[in-house]
Amino acid sequence: MKILVSNDDGIDAIGLKLLAEFASGLGEVVVCAPKYEQSGRSHGVVFDRPFEVLEVDDFKYIGAKAYRIDAAPADCVRFALDVIDPKFDFVFAGINRGLNLGDDISYSGTCAISFEAGFAGIPAVSFSSKSKCIEESAGYLNAVWDYLTEKKAFEHASIFNVNIPRDPKGILLTTQGRFYYKDKFIPCEDANTYKAEYCLARSPETVINPSVDIDAVLSGYCSVTPLCTKRTDFEAYERLKFLT
Predict the structure, then answer these.
(1) Which of 17, 99, 117, 182 has its CA at a distance of 20 to 30 angstroms from the CA of residue 191?
(2) CB 222 within 8 A of CB 144
């Protein structure tokens, strides 16, 4: 099995190292990751300039080739499939420094990696954790992989978004919720300049439905959410097609 591993926190991130180590126990690993942190880049790509790609030795200790790419997370997947090998069996993204839950998935470079793999027809999993417990979360990757394989999950969906809290009580299959973070734009000392500050929009006291990713994680469970690349509103399509 051949696995492409990437992230949006940059090639030096501890989460990428731990995920690549885990993946090396499943098969052959290739790492393609951004030169710098690209958090919040979503599915953006670089098309207005050339970008540097350097092979590095950072992952030789697990027998993996690795490439440092001066571009976006989605570009890392696009480059790997076009130049390195179009036939990866899986794409893993993460372990992201910070949870990717609810509508905030739209902003995630980590999840964009999985969506880019989905466009290419390759099954993918994005892994995220709270920033202060990434190493602990890495110890739970085997449990998540066992869950996905025992349920034959990839026969039903090709993209999964996984969020691992500290000391998970277990794993719950979830749907995507709404916003986990909220932001405020704070004026700076310079005129006409603002800085975005982010804070949690939810707390454990507001848990309503553990079948939703945010509520599951706030309840202490690891959430596993099947996602897809299609954005068609099929209900609207079915209603509207008879009106045209």
Answers:
(1) 182
(2) yes
Number of domains in the chain: 1
Q: How far apart are alpha carbons 14 and 96 in whole angstroms?
A: 9
User: Taking Cα atoms as reference points, which of 115, 126, 128, 131 lies closest to residue 214?
Assistant: 128
Q: pTM for this one? A: 0.90
* Spatial separation of the C-alpha atoms in residues 43 and 108, rounded to whole Å: 8
**191 in any annotated domain:** no
| Those residues with Cβ within 8 angstroms of residue 169's Cβ, 6 or more apart along the chain or in another chain | 219, 220, 221
Residue 233 lies in a domain: yes
Contacts of 243 (CB under 8 A, 6+ apart): none
Of the pLDDT bands very low, low, confident and very high (cuts 50, 70, 90), residue 118 is very high
Residue pLDDT, tens place only, 207-222: 678 899 999 999 999 9
The CATH number of the domain where 228 resides is what? 3.40.1210.10
Question: Quick check: is 221 in a domain?
Answer: yes
- Residue pointed to by tokens 């890392």: 76
Domain that holds residue 214: 2-176+206-243
Cβ atoms 73, 35 nearer than 8 A: no
Domain annotation covers residue 17: yes
